[in-house]
Each structure stands twice: as structure tokens, then as C-alpha cells.
Write a structure and sequence with these properties.
homodimer, mainly alpha, DNA-binding
Chain lengths: ~150, ~150
DNA sequence: CGAATATCAGTGACACTGAAATTA
DNA sequence: CTAATTTCAGTGGCACTGATATTC
């Protein structure tokens, strides 16, 4: 069956749309938004402090956007900012104990609920999807000048 | 190679993120936003007038959101609202000549740009991606009560 | 001085909910 | 009266650009 570019795109948007909605309702009780959660995980994965700019780069957003994101997480007490002793221009971000706990809690909750995104796919299917998405939309080349 | 659910999800978000950014810059010169474009296509595909509620359903958004979307398109002169003679509660939406032209222009521009979303994939890969996405995030079951 | 790093201020795009008006 | 359809008003999430302060 032939699938046009337009059709895939349409379905992709719809999927994104649903996933976002689901994430939002799933995460709301825990007091974090989807973007905040992604930022949290970025910090959690790197063990050790992470610079603001590093977070922005990993999330592929403008540095200014990372500031607001981290602001929210800081207000929620999930992460903390600290000065970098080696470079006083930069700000280092680390998880607070509450942040560590929430991250674990979330992983646990999702696993036991079996409610994860893409959870309906087999491991093989996930691998296929991963490789297809990797090829689909290559990074923007012209993205280093992001303000 | 094993791919975790978290990894696919992460990549999916990133892809969505890039696709959205690209769409926005591609469409901006033509005066429409990505969501507006999708709404425009929804009306274009159905030949004949479309009810507001139908648009909302097709885009999987709340009726109230469709109102604002259509507002923008109407202001841009791309679509027109008309009363439904058979049901005075409903509003019918049709493309204006300008809307028809822009739709054609848009299709043309995308084709010649060769830079389409998912254009790097082969037909077979698109079909695979399509079927995977279809399985990935089934509709929300509990979505009929959307306000 | 030029480059890097983070932040402040303002804006745009998008979808949601709750309440209201109109009509079936 | 109940249900359907659309709209009004307000809000939340998220990312952007331009300008600014500080530091390398």
C-alpha cells in the first residue's frame, strides 16, 4: 500500500498530539510538565552537574528557553543552580533529593502501569521506528546560531 | 540493538520538535501557521463544505480550538463561513478562491523543494513508519467528552 | 575588544476548560 | 427540557527573538 509523504506527516502530527496530551495528563498530578520532565531527565542521565547551555543543546532549544524551563524546576524544588567554580559565566544544574526521588517515582509508576508511550510496540518494532525517525528529519544544519 | 521506550520517546519528541520548527519557517512566508495549514488541507480534502465540529474531529482538537484556527484563516481570506441551510446551529466552512490557490501553491512549493518531511525515506520505509505510528498511540478512548 | 554564557522582556502559536447563545 | 453546535473569555505550555550583564 502506497503511503504519501503527506499522509505520514499527518499521522505523525496526530501521534505527537496524542502523546503530548497523554503526557500532560499523566504528569500533571506530579506537578511537572512534559518539557520539564524531559529537562529533568537530561540532568538525571548525566551524573554530575550540567551547564545551562548543555541542557539547551540536549533538548535542542534556545538557551533562553532553557532558562525558563529550569526556573520552573527550581521553583518546584526539583533541581538547584550552583555557581561553576571553574567558569563564573556558567551555571551548573543538579538534581535535588526531591528531584532524584521524583525521577525514580515516575519511572516506577510508568513501568508498573504499563502505560508508557510506544509501549504497545515490540522491541523489534521500537528499533525499527528508532532507525526510521533517525533518518527522517536530520538536524537543521543551520542551527548553531540559535540565539 | 536494543532500544528502550524512553529512547524512542525522546527521539520522537526531538523529531516532532524539528519538524515543527521547519514547518513554521517554511510556511511563514506564505502567511499561514502549521496548524492553520492542516486545517486548510482538511477543508480542501473534503470537497464541499465542512462543519466546524467536523474540522475539530478530524484534527483531534476541541471545538473551541477549531474556532480560533478558522478565525485566523478567515481573516486571511483563505476560507469563508456560511450558514448551513439544513441546520441553523451549524456553520459550514469552504475554501475561497484564494484558499484554493494557496493550497495548490503550497503543494507545488513542497514538491519542488524536495525537502519535504519524511522525503528522505523510501516508499517502503514510509509505509513501515505509517503502520508503526498507527499502532503506537491508539486514540484516547476517553476523548468524546472533549468540551 | 570579541566570544561565550546566562538572563530579562516581550511575543507568537496552540490547545484546553468553563460558560453562554442558539437551535434541534 | 435535553442535546448538539458554535462561540466568547480566560489560561497554560512552550519556544522564539532582541537586548543586556558578566566573564573569559
Amino acid at each position: 500500500m502506497a503511503v504519501t509523504v503527506a499522509e505520514v506527516t499527518e499521522l505523525f502530527w496526530q501521534t505527537a498530539h496524542r502523546l503530548r496530551r497523554r503526557s500532560m495528563t499523566d504528569l500533571a498530578p506530579l506537578g511537572v510538565t512534559p518539557a520539564q520532565f524531559r529537562a529533568l531527565r537530561t540532568v538525571a542521565k548525566a551524573d554530575g552537574p550540567v551547564r545551562m547551555g548543555e541542557i539547551a543543546a540536549r533538548l535542542d532549544i534556545a538557551p533562553r528557553s532553557a532558562t525558563s524551563l529550569v526556573d520552573g524546576l527550581e521553583q518546584a524544588g526539583l533541581i538547584a543552580r550552583a555557581a561553576d567554580p571553574d567558569n563564573r559565566r556558567s551555571v551548573l544544574v543538579v538534581l535535588t533529593p526531591a528531584g532524584v526521588e521524583l525521577t525514580a517515582q515516575l519511572a516506577q509508576a510508568r513501568k508498573s502501569a504499563g502505560q508508557q508511550a510506544f509501549g504497545k510496540l515490540t522491541a523489534a518494532e521500537r528499533a525499527t521506528l528508532f532507525s526510521l525517525l533517525s533518518k527522517a528529519i536530520p538536524p537543521d544544519a543551520d542551527r548553531s546560531e540559535a540565539n
